[in-house]
């Protein structure tokens, strides 16, 4: 922590004006080796941007953020002006606290200042004292503070109190200001130019820094004070106050949401039972129940691969900064894809974990700390990044709140993702066996857990962790039984030993005797019978009570998921995301590799339709082997069909593989990001050209409707295409001009907005007018509140994540088509998404 030494305090000074006072405070920092002389000018310029007068005779001059390269090391100076100096009209300053901060290391002194600001007598005593030690004792952030009365703790500067740019708000959502709600707050704060500060319990945080916000350790029910200083302060404060008051996207305490686990496909299970007081049996290991279910399989001990050696120093700081920036951009794209994947597989609540990771990744204080080490300590990008991450992770781990302290692991997970890209290795989780296992590990990162294949990993057992950890949440969403917090003894279990893991009771029994194994298999059989009953019902067609049929299909992104689609009762694959073949590799897949994948999936479906979306990459989803220019707005850039046209060899290779596989099943082709009739004709001509070359069977060709232009031109496109599939995720963000990856806009970027529904309605009417069918493959299809409206709009197919299939089919079988049509008509007349959702609640 930064400290204030007596050598940095000047008493009994005289200043002619504010500029002179700032200059003197800056000279102290120059003489102490903290800043280059040019930073004093930056301190002067800062005064023209925003006032640094705090109130009660204290000012904190500091430089502009873009001039931080002039800071040699973080430091503080104090200039005591006993007779005062006019700062602004009507404002007299007696203590000038100069700050040179590389990141947020100076926050401790701000907390000290907030302690004394409310006590005018203390300020005046410090303004008159002849003892340097008095000032150091009062303001040195490294010294223990005398407890401050609760009434004045965590208070913002008095100037902001008088100006009204503050708000006191209770944190009501979830279990407090943990990673996901903090990410929503930070994302919203970043939309404003003003400086945002948050005060709580004597601590101050940068409202635009994820790590800084988590350091506050705010529990549910805690009151925070938000201040804003800058050109849009009033609007910023209003928006943040409303966001916190609404829960920052957290609707219930984690103890409630943890109970919502998917015990059966498409169903929500009751709360996981508490661990019963069962009699101990030899070898039984007790942990914490994290995800329900029984797993019987051989143990596999997960060993992390050794870290690559990292050079501490580098010769080219500019190149190192470029490497770091590139790695952070790549890591951000990976997290965006993880968010989309988990969103489809498990839902938005679980997927938000990776939005929180994205905020960690983009934390300005973290990035600035790493860049500073590169520029001023001549460290390599990898060494600087690792050091910056560990410093902040250590601070989070030291928090008293276990939930907030656990976010240190999330920060390390984000740090490791960037490290893998910097050192260009696969450092991290070693490859897993190709047979069923119970995975045993010290702990799993969210990224590791999200990458597990539930067909092979039948259970998870960790030495560390808790039921509210992101690993536990993801295990439940993936329907993998899990027991966590078992202690380090589980790390001594032999790989290959059979074990029984019960995620409902929180127990693991290694090497069970024949009787115990038999009873476990019987219990597993009972659970399997219940699951089989649900799956059996899922095979029934989705026909409404008045005879209207809707096809229910699956969105998938991996070869094994084709078979799981059939098992879950899916009637087709409505969307195959082919990106899984192209990502996480250094060169593109060949035609034969793609052919084998598409062929395997078509055969696994046993004649059910397989709609293959051509590569939807580029822009926000870069590929390492494609050189692309930086784009300020990648969602409007070179992506989807545009990238395919720009890479004709890659495009032809994929189309050849799809057309070859068409002989092995009912395969259809779907193009992403089509915006005009011309684009579709161009793509379809290429399909036909290659089909003739291969003598392949004729194949249906359709498009994703995901931009407003394709919906507006639906009547023209319907004469050309064989089908439409509406991607409501992108259609929503483009129609409403809201980035769907921005957690601060998540509530407003609602696919049930009447404008989006009208786009759907327009597309369906145009398609049916030409005898073509329409599906919906975006998240809206899996939203129970939206199903009746989409069916009422005459959508022919709903394509959802595999776990959602049985529940959606059951919902359709319970509804009346005529009621759905009436609901859809009313929804189209609404003015906002919340009105539409209110309608659905009325008929639920």
TrEMBL record:
<dbReference type="InterPro" id="IPR023151">
    <property type="entry name" value="PEP_util_CS"/>
</dbReference>
<dbReference type="InterPro" id="IPR002178">
    <property type="entry name" value="PTS_EIIA_type-2_dom"/>
</dbReference>
<dbReference type="InterPro" id="IPR002114">
    <property type="entry name" value="PTS_HPr_Ser_P_site"/>
</dbReference>
<keyword id="KW-0963">Cytoplasm</keyword>
<keyword id="KW-0597">Phosphoprotein</keyword>
<dbReference type="Pfam" id="PF05524">
    <property type="entry name" value="PEP-utilisers_N"/>
</dbReference>
<dbReference type="InterPro" id="IPR035895">
    <property type="entry name" value="HPr-like_sf"/>
</dbReference>
<dbReference type="InterPro" id="IPR036618">
    <property type="entry name" value="PtsI_HPr-bd_sf"/>
</dbReference>
<keyword id="KW-0813">Transport</keyword>
<keyword id="KW-0670">Pyruvate</keyword>
<dbReference type="GO" id="GO:0009401">
    <property type="term" value="P:phosphoenolpyruvate-dependent sugar phosphotransferase system"/>
</dbReference>
<dbReference type="InterPro" id="IPR008279">
    <property type="entry name" value="PEP-util_enz_mobile_dom"/>
</dbReference>
<dbReference type="InterPro" id="IPR001020">
    <property type="entry name" value="PTS_HPr_His_P_site"/>
</dbReference>
<keyword id="KW-0762">Sugar transport</keyword>
<keyword id="KW-0418">Kinase</keyword>
<protein>
    <recommendedName>
        <fullName>Multiphosphoryl transfer protein</fullName>
        <ecNumber>2.7.3.9</ecNumber>
    </recommendedName>
</protein>
<dbReference type="InterPro" id="IPR006318">
    <property type="entry name" value="PTS_EI-like"/>
</dbReference>
<dbReference type="InterPro" id="IPR040442">
    <property type="entry name" value="Pyrv_kinase-like_dom_sf"/>
</dbReference>
<comment type="function">
    <text>The phosphoenolpyruvate-dependent sugar phosphotransferase system (sugar PTS), a major carbohydrate active transport system, catalyzes the phosphorylation of incoming sugar substrates concomitantly with their translocation across the cell membrane. The enzyme II FruAB PTS system is involved in fructose transport.</text>
</comment>
<keyword id="KW-0808">Transferase</keyword>
<dbReference type="InterPro" id="IPR000121">
    <property type="entry name" value="PEP_util_C"/>
</dbReference>
<dbReference type="InterPro" id="IPR000032">
    <property type="entry name" value="HPr-like"/>
</dbReference>
<feature type="domain" description="PTS EIIA type-2">
    <location>
        <begin position="2"/>
        <end position="142"/>
    </location>
</feature>
<dbReference type="Pfam" id="PF00391">
    <property type="entry name" value="PEP-utilizers"/>
</dbReference>
<dbReference type="Pfam" id="PF02896">
    <property type="entry name" value="PEP-utilizers_C"/>
</dbReference>
<dbReference type="GO" id="GO:0005737">
    <property type="term" value="C:cytoplasm"/>
</dbReference>
<dbReference type="GO" id="GO:0008965">
    <property type="term" value="F:phosphoenolpyruvate-protein phosphotransferase activity"/>
</dbReference>
<dbReference type="Pfam" id="PF00381">
    <property type="entry name" value="PTS-HPr"/>
</dbReference>
<dbReference type="InterPro" id="IPR050499">
    <property type="entry name" value="PEP-utilizing_PTS_enzyme"/>
</dbReference>
<dbReference type="InterPro" id="IPR036637">
    <property type="entry name" value="Phosphohistidine_dom_sf"/>
</dbReference>
<dbReference type="Pfam" id="PF00359">
    <property type="entry name" value="PTS_EIIA_2"/>
</dbReference>
<dbReference type="InterPro" id="IPR008731">
    <property type="entry name" value="PTS_EIN"/>
</dbReference>
<keyword id="KW-0460">Magnesium</keyword>
<dbReference type="GO" id="GO:0046872">
    <property type="term" value="F:metal ion binding"/>
</dbReference>
<dbReference type="InterPro" id="IPR015813">
    <property type="entry name" value="Pyrv/PenolPyrv_kinase-like_dom"/>
</dbReference>
<keyword id="KW-0479">Metal-binding</keyword>
<dbReference type="InterPro" id="IPR018274">
    <property type="entry name" value="PEP_util_AS"/>
</dbReference>
<dbReference type="InterPro" id="IPR016152">
    <property type="entry name" value="PTrfase/Anion_transptr"/>
</dbReference>
<feature type="domain" description="HPr">
    <location>
        <begin position="164"/>
        <end position="251"/>
    </location>
</feature>
<comment type="similarity">
    <text>Belongs to the PEP-utilizing enzyme family.</text>
</comment>
<dbReference type="GO" id="GO:0016301">
    <property type="term" value="F:kinase activity"/>
</dbReference>
<keyword id="KW-0598">Phosphotransferase system</keyword>
């Amino acid at each position: 922590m930064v400290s204030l030494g007596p050598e940095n305090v000047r008493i009994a000074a005289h200043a002619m004006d504010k500029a002179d006072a700032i200059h003197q405070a800056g000279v102290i920092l120059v003489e102490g080796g903290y800043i280059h002389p040019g930073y004093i000018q930056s301190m002067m310029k800062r005064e023209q941007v925003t006032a640094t007068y705090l109130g009660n005779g204290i000012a904190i001059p500091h430089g502009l953020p873009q001039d931080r390269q002039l800071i040699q090391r973080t430091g503080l100076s104090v200039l005591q002006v006993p007779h005062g100096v006019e700062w602004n009209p009507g404002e007299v300053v007696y203590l000038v606290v100069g700050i040179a901060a590389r990141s947020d290391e100076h926050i401790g002194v701000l907390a000290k200042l907030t302690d004394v600001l409310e006590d005018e007598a203390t300020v005046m005593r410090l303004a008159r004292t002849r003892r340097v030690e008095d000032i150091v004792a009062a303001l040195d952030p490294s010294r223990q503070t005398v407890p401050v009365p609760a009434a004045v703790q965590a208070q913002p500067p008095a100037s902001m109190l008088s100006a009204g740019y503050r708000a006191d708000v209770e944190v009501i959502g979830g279990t407090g200001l943990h990673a996901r709600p903090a990410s929503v707050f930070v994302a919203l704060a970043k939309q404003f130019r003003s400086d945002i500060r948050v005060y709580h319990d004597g601590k101050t945080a940068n409202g635009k820094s994820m790590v800084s916000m988590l350091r506050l350790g705010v529990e549910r029910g805690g009151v925070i004070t938000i201040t804003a200083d800058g050109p849009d302060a009033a609007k910023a404060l209003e928006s943040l106050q409303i966001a916190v008051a609404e829960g920052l996207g957290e609707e219930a305490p984690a103890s409630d949401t943890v109970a919502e686990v998917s015990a059966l496909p498409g169903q929500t299970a009751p709360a996981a039972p508490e661990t019963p007081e069962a009699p101990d049996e030899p070898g039984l290991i007790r942990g914490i129940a994290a995800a329900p279910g029984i797993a019987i399989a051989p143990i596999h001990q997960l060993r992390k691969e050794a870290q690559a050696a990292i050079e501490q120093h580098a010769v080219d700081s500019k190149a190192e900064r470029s490497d770091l920036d590139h790695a952070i951009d790549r890591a951000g794209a990976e997290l965006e894809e993880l968010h989309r994947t988990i969103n489809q597989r498990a839902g938005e609540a679980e997927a938000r974990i990776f939005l929180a990771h994205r905020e960690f990744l983009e934390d300005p204080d973290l990035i600035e700390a790493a860049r500073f080490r590169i520029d001023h300590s001549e460290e390599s990008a990898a060494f600087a990044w690792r050091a910056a991450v560990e410093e902040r992770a250590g601070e989070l781990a030291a928090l008293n709140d276990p939930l907030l302290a656990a976010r240190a692991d999330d920060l390390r997970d984000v740090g490791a993702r960037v490290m893998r890209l910097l050192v260009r290795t696969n450092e991290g989780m070693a490859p897993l066996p190709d047979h069923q296992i119970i995975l045993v590990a010290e702990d799993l990162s969210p990224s590791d857990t999200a990458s597990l294949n539930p067909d092979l990993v039948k259970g998870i057992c960790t030495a560390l962790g808790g039921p509210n950890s992101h690993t536990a949440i993801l295990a439940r969403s993936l329907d993998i039984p899990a027991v966590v917090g078992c202690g380090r003894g589980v790390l001594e279990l032999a790989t290959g030993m059979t074990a029984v893991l019960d995620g409902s009771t929180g127990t693991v029994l290694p090497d069970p005797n024949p009787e115990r194994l038999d009873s476990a298999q019987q219990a597993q059989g009972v659970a399997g019978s219940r699951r089989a009953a649900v799956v059996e019902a899922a095979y029934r067609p989705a026909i409404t009570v008045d005879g209207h049929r809707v096809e229910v299909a699956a969105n998938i992104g991996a070869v094994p998921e084709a078979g799981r689609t059939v098992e879950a009762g899916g009637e087709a694959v409505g969307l195959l995301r082919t990106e899984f073949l192209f990502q996480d590799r250094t060169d593109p897949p060949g035609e034969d590799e793609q052919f084998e994948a598409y062929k395997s999936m078509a055969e696994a479906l046993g004649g059910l339709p397989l709609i293959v979306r051509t590569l939807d990459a580029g822009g926000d989803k870069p590929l390492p082997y494609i050189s692309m220019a930086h784009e300020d707005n990648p969602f409007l850039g070179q992506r989807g069909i545009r990238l395919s046209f720009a890479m004709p060899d890659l495009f032809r290779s994929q189309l050849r593989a799809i057309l070859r596989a068409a002989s092995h099943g009912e395969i259809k082709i779907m193009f992403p990001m089509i915006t005009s009739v011309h684009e579709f004709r161009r793509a379809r001509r290429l399909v036909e050209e290659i089909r003739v070359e291969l003598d392949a069977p004729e194949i249906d060709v359709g498009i994703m409707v995901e931009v407003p232009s394709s919906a507006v031109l639906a009547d023209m496109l319907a004469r050309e295409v064989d089908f439409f599939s509406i991607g409501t995720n992108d259609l929503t963000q483009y129609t409403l001009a809201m980035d769907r990856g921005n957690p601060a806009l998540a509530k407003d970027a609602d696919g049930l907005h009447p404008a989006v529904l009208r786009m759907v309605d327009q597309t369906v009417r145009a398609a049916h007018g030409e005898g073509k069918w329409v599906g919906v493959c975006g998240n809206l299809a899996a939203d129970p509140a939206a199903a009746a409206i989409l069916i009422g709009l005459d959508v022919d197919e709903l394509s959802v994540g595999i776990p959602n299939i049985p529940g959606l089919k059951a919902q359709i079988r319970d509804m009346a088509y005529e009621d759905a049509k009436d609901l859809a008509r009313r929804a189209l007349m609404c003015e906002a998404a919340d009105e539409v959702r209110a309608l659905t609640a009325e008929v639920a």
